[in-house]
Amino acid sequence: MFHFNRSSATALCAAAVLGGACATLGAGAAQAHVSANAPTLTQGGYGVVTLVVPNESDTASTTSVTVTLPRLKSARPETTTCWKAEVTKDPRTQEATAITWTAEPGTPGVPVGQFAQFRLAGGPFPDQNTVELPAVQVYSDGQKVAWDQSTPEGGDEPEHPAPTLTLPEGDGHDGHHGTPSVAADTDGEGTDTVARWLGGAGLAVGIAGVAFGVAAGRRRPGGSDA
Q1: Residue 80, by phi and psi: left (phi above 0), alpha (psi -120 to 50) or beta?
Q2: Residue 223 CB contacts under 8 Å (≥ 6 apart), including other chains
């Protein structure tokens, strides 16, 4: 019988790195800066943010990444193989202020020459055109790189620019100016927009099914139309 232990976990993590990060190496990390993107997120809305973290070191792996959040009502990290995620909250307001991903002991983290993607779902994000998400990248040799410099409008990009989201205005359909395409997790406060949307869609499908069944019964051989 196969016994799952730390060595097995390390092997699985190494396989995940080889099958995942290596397969996409060079596809989105050419700029070699920590960056963020959120194609479906709008001002004041909920959505999924992807943090792209390339390894810029020639000798050490990336073992930890922390991103600062703009005091979100809800923030949940996606499960990431071989990484542990921790959400930091303001103890007074319970707003999410940061997320830290840390490589599990004995696992490769983000190896030299590769990159990783970390995702979070949350909101509502600020009602503004751009939102900075300062990040700190930690390497296995103890080096820390702070990606927290603002890029001046119309100016040159600094050496360590903060990951920045550009957010379009929302249409207000989900009550938070954003799109309901991503779960608006309210942590128990209020009704989940997506759950209501799915419930309505399910009801519509059920009604359509009943109508189809009635129509089919009327058309059965030997049956009579009312």
Answers
A1: beta
A2: 217
- Whether 161 and 36 have beta carbons less than 8 Å apart is answered as no
Instruction: Return the SS3 of 166.
Output: strand
* Four-CA torsion 32, 80, 48, 147, nearest 10 degrees: -30
Question: Tens digit of pLDDT per residue, the chain (226 long)?
Answer: 445 455 555 555 655 544 444 433 444 444 589 999 999 999 999 999 999 999 999 999 999 999 999 999 999 999 999 999 999 999 999 999 999 999 999 999 999 999 999 999 999 999 999 999 999 999 999 999 999 999 888 878 999 999 999 999 987 654 454 444 444 444 444 434 444 444 444 544 454 444 444 444 444 444 444 4
Closest by Cα among 120, 29, 116 to 70? 120
Q: Which residues pair with 122 in a beta bridge?
A: 47, 75
80-113 in b/e burial notation, b at 16+ Cβ within 10 A?
Answer: eebbebebeeeeeeebbebbbbebbeebbbbbee
Q: Would you mind telling me the total number of residues written for the chain in this entry?
A: 226
Q: How far is CA 121 from CA 124, 180, 181, 203, in A?
A: 10, 12, 11, 27
Q: In what order do the strands lie in the sheet with 144-147?
A: 83-89, 96-103, 62-72, 135-139, 144-147
